[in-house]
Amino acid sequence: GFGIAGAPLGGETPIRVALSLVDRYPFQYSFSEELRNPSPFPPGSGEPARDQIIELREREVLGTLRTLSLGIGADVDDEIAIGMAVHYAFGTREETNMVRDYVTDANSYNNTTKYDMNGINFSLGARGKISERVELGVAWESQLYTTGDYSQSNYDAGSGLTDESTWSGYLRYPNIYRAGLAFMPRTDPKTIFTIEAEYSSWSQLADSENPGYDNPQNLQDTMDVRIGLEHTFYNGMPLRFGFRHMDTYYDAESSSSIFSAGSAFKIGRGEIAVSMELGKLTSIQPHQFPYPDEYFGDSFTSDPEARVEDTRFRIGVGYTQYF
Fold first, then answer.
1. Is omega for the bond preceding 216 within 30 degrees of 0, making it cis?
2. Worst-scoring range by mean pLDDT, 185-194, 196-205, 280-289, 297-306?
């Protein structure tokens, strides 16, 4: 993505305009597993071979919902500033579920569903200077109501036929409320401390694939808290640390904690920023695919849910140019 901000009416005016393009909701996800025969018999014994692949199962989600935003902000006076932005969201989400059965080929299938969507929402915000060292900001982002066309392709090996269909649908995302505080203590070199909280009412999500406005998916409202610290050394190089704790809308008992660290290097009139992020999420989830119990003498026994640990490690690089 990118962002650009400036004063089109001149630097002496209190009005600023900004344009940005960001990945709002990246849908990328990939899961695959091999279902193998738990038979105790080795190959060549006349019995079904141990570790013979019974099924190959894959689920893949592709696509990104991007947001093109145009914002305007202005200083009301030396202590208060207000702003608003309009967001145009567009993108696709494509999900593929595939099962290849090596024992009973008729059980194999490949199902792909694609949603091509777009929508518009807006944000309102205000910032106030409580003192020369403390600033407070609040913002509200309206519900993003996307509409678009679904297309589905379903291949069934039992019949050897491929069914294709299309239909219209919608997805209404939640209201989002944000508040943030910045504290700049009297230090030399400069140090900045920030904290931000974001509340998302996911229980208000409406999906045409799950009809009803009474939260039929039983989604949970979430809180996302971010804490940041930036210390600038005498040579102008900053050192940044961050902590983030966020709830999950799917399971009230699950949450994720993320740690990050980074720095920046000045190059000419610009700056290159780098950061590393490490986080972990633990939850109890239903299986992606059901486990069969009819193969090889009812050899499979499994719980309906499993403990899932998701570890995330990311490296980010950004560039800022001053004109």
1. no
2. 297-306
pLDDT for 298? 59
Q: Which of 69, 179, 46, 160 is nearest to 106 (CA)?
A: 160
Which is it for strands 15-26 and 29-36: parallel, antiparallel or unpaired? unpaired
Strands 64-75 and 109-131: unpaired
Paired sense of beta strands 305-321 and 206-207, if any:
unpaired
Report the distance separating Cα 323 and Cα 321, nearest Å.
7
Cα separation, 313 vs 323, in Å, equals: 33
Give the H or E element holding residue 228. strand 222-232
DSSP states of 239-300 = EEEEEEEEE-SS-TT-EEEEEEEEEEEEETTEEEEEEEEEEEEEEEEE-SSPPPSSSTTT--
pTM, entire model: 0.84
Distance CA 252, CA 317 (A): 33
Phi-psi sector, 186: left (phi>0), alpha (psi -120 to 50), beta: beta
- Is the peptide bond preceding residue 292 cis, with omega within 30 degrees of 0? no
Return the number of other C-beta atoms located less than 10 Å from residue 77's C-beta. 8
CA-closest candidate to residue 172, choices 209, 132, 225 = 209
Report, in angstroms and rounded to the nearest whole number, the Rg of the chain calculated over CA atoms: 26
Write down the pLDDT at residue 37.
79
What mean pLDDT, rounded, does the chain reach? 90
> How far are the Cα atoms of 184, 185, 232, 264, 309 from residue 188, in angstroms, in the given order?
11, 9, 9, 19, 42
